[in-house]
Each structure stands twice: as C-alpha cells, then as structure tokens.
Amino acid sequence: MSETPSTLHTALSLAAAGVPVLPLRRGKIPFGNCPACTGNTCGGRPNMKTPGPCHCPGVCHAWAAASTVPAVIASPLWLAAWHRAVCVGYHPGGAGLTVVDLDDADAIAWARTALPATRTVPTTRGQHWIYRGTMPSANGVRPGVDIKSLMAYARWLGHGTGVMAALPAAVRALAVKERSTARRAPQGLTAPLRGHGSECPHRTPTYLERGVVMAVQRITEARSAVHATVYRTFLAVLSTHGRCGCLTDTHVNRLFTAAQAKGESLRHCTDAWANALTTLGL
Question: What is the pTM of this model?
Fold first, then answer.
C-alpha cells in the first residue's frame, strides 16, 4: 500500500480547485458508515437534524463526507478507502454546481431541445450537463433524467467540453414538478397544495424585496455566531418564500454574498441552505 492511488491524485487536484470529493467503491457508490455512525446514531449530516457535519474522521455519510481539506482526504482512514476505490465522487452542490444526468440517447435528444447548452461530460451510457448554481437534487424528473446538486454526489468523469452556463429555470422547474407530484399523491388532495399550481401570493416586488433586504441586513449586522445566524436567516427566508417559487438565483446570490462577506465559505453557505431546505421539507 505504499503506492499512492491515482484516485487520490485526482481527488487532491479537484479539492485544490474547490470541489469537495469522496472515494466511491465498486458499484460507484460511497463507502458505508463506520460502526460509530451506523444508522446515523451520531446525528450526522444526512439526518440534517442539526447544522454542521459529523466529526467522524472516516469516510462516512456518503455525499456529506465530501471534503476539500487535503489533510482529511489523504488521512490514513481515507487513504485505505482510496486504495479500494474504483473512482472519484464529488458533491456538485458543495462546488456551486448542478449536474443534469442524462442516462440515454433519448434523454440527450430531449435536453438538446429543452435546455440551454452548457459544459458536457460523456458518461458510460449518456452525458452529464453541468450548470453553475445549486438546487435541491431530484431523481427521475423525466425518463432517463436525474438532477444532482445539493445533498447528492456525482462521479467525476473529467472536465468535459463547452462553456458552463448558469443554472436555467427549466432545470429548476423539473425538480419542482417532480417534488410536487410525489407529495400530492399520498395525500389524496383534490386541490393543489399551497404555492403549487396557483398564483404565488408573495410575488410582489415590494414584499419580496423587503424580505431579502431584511435578511441581508440581519446577516451583515451579525457580531457573533455568524454561521448560526446565516442558517437561521436562510431558514426564515425559505419558510416564507421557499414553497411558492418566489426566490430566484439573484435573490439567493444576494444572501450568499452577504454571508461570504462575513467570512462564510461557499460550502458553508451551501450546507446551511441545504440544512434549511431539509428542515422545512422542501
């Protein structure tokens, strides 16, 4: 085990570029949790009951294990995993990205007519289309199409070709439709859920702008516990506007910019946003 695995070299290179990485074992899936984390008894990030990661030094909790810290990635426990890994995985949301996973030729043909061109990476059977921006992940949004961003991992298959475009509304709409359909079916509702399928009650410039300004101000004026303040502010914004589609990339970027001005990293912002989404069931 003296030779450094090629997967580790790739992982460290990606981490240096700000891409959170993790090893994937046979089957292209993450390594299982350690005994102390089995069943999420440690309260690790996949539970999202509290913000912040589990402090286990192992490669635990799937996408939540992804790291950009060289000392973690090359630690003895991780090194043992890299020797068994078949490929490198990464957390797209942690890198500020969204991957549209097109699994076959039909899905690719659909994307070429429905989505704006962006960076493209060939896969075994299809393509990954990669956009700048993050969103909740969703599987099976249409035949052969998955969305991998926040709280998900993707296989690293190279840098691809083409210029990376901003995450379009068309991709966000796919996930909203998928989540809405999945939630309505078991409830047996005869009317649409609030904020889905009807005019948004908050879509007035004054109301929304005032809310975003107040949120930015709350973050900017934080003198201590900045990370907790950012999380609570994101939670407040999403509780008001997260279910009805008011928020745009511009609004979210303003919140992230304010948080980063207070010293929060992009990954901290992304994690806090994901925590808030999950807490609210969005």
Answer: 0.63
Please check whether residue 178 is in contact with residue 164, taking contact to mean a CB–CB distance below 8 angstroms: no
Would you place residue 192 in the very low, low, confident or very high pLDDT band (cuts 50, 70, 90)?
very low
| CA-wise closest residue to 24 among 162, 152, 176, 126 | 152
Give a yes or no: residue 53 inside a domain: yes
Same domain, 73 and 107: no
- Are residues 278 and 151 in contact, defined by beta-carbon separation less than 8 angstroms? yes
Number of folded domains that form the chain: 3
Radius of gyration of the chain (CA): 19
Domain that holds residue 264: 200-279
Percent of the chain having pLDDT more than 90? 40
How far apart CA 235 and CA 201 sit, in angstroms, is 19
For residue 104, the model assigns a pLDDT of: 93
Does residue 16 lie in a domain region? yes
The last residue of one of the domains, among 56, 91, 126, is: 91
Closest to 73 measured CA to CA, from 150, 20, 33:
20
The verdict on residue 38 lying in a domain is yes
Separation CA 119–CA 130 (nearest Å) = 5
